[in-house]
Amino acid sequence: MALTTAPGRTPRTGPVGPRPTRRGAGRARYGEGLAGYVFLSPWLIGLMGITALPMLLSLWLSFTDYDILTPLSEVRWVGLANYERMFTADPSYWHAVRVTLTFALVAVPLKLAAALGVALLLNRTWRGVGLFRGLFYLPSLLGGSVALAIVWVNMFNRDGAFNSFLALFGVEGLPWVADPDWALQTLMVLAIWQFGAPMVIFLAGLKQVPVELYEAAAVDGAGVWRRFRAVTLPMLSPVIFFNLVLETIHGFQGFTAAFVLSNGTGGPVDSTLMYTLKLYISGFTDLEMGYASAMAWVFLLAIALITAVFFSTGRFWVHYSDGGDDS
Amino acid sequence: MHPATPPTAGAPAGRNHRTLLSRRRFVRGLAAVALVAPLALGAAGCGGDDDAGDGGPVKLSIFWWGGDARAKLTEDALALYTKKHPDVTFEKTWQANQGYFDKLATLTAGGNPPDLFQIDDNYLAEYAGRSTTLDLGSYRDSGKLDVSKFPKSLLEYGVVDGKLAGVAAGENTQGLVYNKTLLTKNGLPEPTTGMSWEEHIAWAEQVAKKTKVPGTQDPSADYKALWVWLRQQGKDLYKGKELGFTVEDVTKWFELWKGARDSGATPTADVIHQGNATDITKQLVVTGKAATSWVWANQMPDLKKNTKDELGVVAYPGDPSAQWARASMYWSVFKGSKHRDTAVDVINFLNNDPEAVALLGTDRGLPSNMDLRAKVSETATDPAMKQSIQVESDLAQKFGPSPQVPIKGHSKVKSELTKAAENAQYGRATPAQAAEQFVTACKAAIA
């Protein structure tokens, strides 16, 4: 934008120069606003066309029997039937809800704990620390990649690398990914292992904690644990809050690994049937896109609700160092 | 289209001003491009195809699933068509099996399906039932689509609700593939066509005891094995829009395999689970985790590529007349296609042109045209391919009538079978409970 502003034009906010007339300022602002929107337009068109419209369409479809193959003009309005079926007549829906909640409740806190723990270790200046930061960050760069999930499946097969490792100690491994009692846990370990992104954010947060506070605490005789509890945690709480919200949403959306591990079925015996996977199967395999849309909207509302709960509880434990309490 | 601020009157003149103007122009240009480019591309996407298919150049879109080898063969055959019909060119898209139907459904939903596409019996009824596929009956009757050399049952297997929804791109049948090398080395007999299910399981147990390799993959989660078995009991997978079997039937089926697991004839549940993947490279006969896999006979060459051992193939146990000439996959034409006649002509070409059929070989199953099938089998050089042709031709005399094409909801029925069978395999349900669960889920799926 700076490029288009001609020199000599009255600056909107400046220490010197006459105050522009109301009209002049209005016109300038209008012009600038228009320019802004025009520059934003590719993105705006994208947002409208690729996000907002399809979302509204899916809201409408969630009240229909749309099966993806039938033209939109011929779909039948079924009212709340999809929602009713979801809540009352589809046991595998509730199964998927349970699997997803279990996954999020276990994997998210452990992932955050791992991220914070490693961030504390790496928040020092010793030789090669950059290398370690990079190495720990690497897995989360690979993020939702299919390749990683495939590697994971092969590592945790009955005759995979992990069991070969266990065999060195004379322990006979399990068929981790092919055992309905363990498949979900294996996915959790994969999710926890990818703690790099929250770790980097924790590291940045730790750098912001004033050294004086630690020094003052040390002078007052606080030990390591006390300093962590009384200084680090409160000072870090906004960052913890941010990571918690982000990772929770992320955790609920876990799809790729479960999809790859189970060949898109949620197996063995539905043990990895995550919510998003169930949604995908309903929409694309069973060709019930109306039903899948209803599922997607319930999912959106559930995540919004959980996030709202986080925000409302946040003010009891999130401290901002600038004195603001919960803004 | 003129977003930037108009030049200000009081701007200083000179060099500085000029560079500024040109910069401004440059930025304006960028904005314009950003605005217009998507519109132009969009317009290009919408335009085109305004010819009605009679005369003038035609660009036919075609979509199939498969690997590199199939892509190469298909592209060669299509190039041959273009050579003979210079007006017709192809917009070819292909991909792996996984995700193919997602994409096909999405394309259809977007109002932009391919003119000509590959489909299988899992989805033929789904598509035909929603009037997505063109009824090819009139082309068959007029002879524009020559099916006179097709086995009758193969052609009938493409009929949904009285309409010819797809033409077989090739024929296959159920095949029990076994590890010949392993058996020979241990002096064990090979399985034969016509042995009973009990004999097969007893044989598998014997193999397991002697070789430490379980004799057979447990196919209780495999719909095609269940289907053949049901037909031998005088039942079927579907009867009209209903299930062709009862809870008792499935209970018996699950119990049969529970016995086999208990006697060690099959691997453990987790290994069976791996073998349940549709991926050919995970079939237990090639991963060495069982001596037998339940596949389609035309998959022999693909299986052979994944193992050094020699493989053999016979019919599924029981009376082989329960098996049928199955369309391994079909070619279907999109009902709204602007080039229907051309698309049908291409199907005709791929099935009946001697050169094209010779090029395609048995990649999509045995050629549907019996005369050309004979030629292809004479010239086949790949031993695995020869073997699968041999079995198919031997069985062809024993084939029973083909069942109806699986109904809407079939893909769900398949996944529910896997779930129920695995519940029994992992010991989480008795055969009766699993059967009950399966039938309930099926009824909901096809309702």
From TrEMBL, chain A:
CDD domains: TM_PBP2 (cd06261). Residues 1-25 are annotated as: Disordered. GO terms for cellular component: plasma membrane. This is Sugar ABC transporter permease. It is found in: Cell membrane. It is a multi-pass membrane protein. Residues 97-310 form the ABC transmembrane type-1 domain. Residues 1-16 have a biased composition (Low complexity). The chain crosses the membrane at residues 37-63, 101-122, 134-155, 182-206, 289-311. The keyword Transmembrane helix applies. Keywords: Cell membrane, Membrane, Transmembrane, Transmembrane helix, Transport. It holds the Pfam family BPD_transp_1. One of its GO terms (biological process) is transmembrane transport. Its main location: membrane. It comes from the Bacteria. Belongs to the binding-protein-dependent transport system permease family. It comes from Micromonospora robiginosa.
Automatic annotation (TrEMBL), chain B:
Gene3D superfamilies: Periplasmic binding protein-like II. It holds the Pfam family SBP_bac_1. It comes from Micromonospora robiginosa. This is Extracellular solute-binding protein. It comes from the Bacteria.
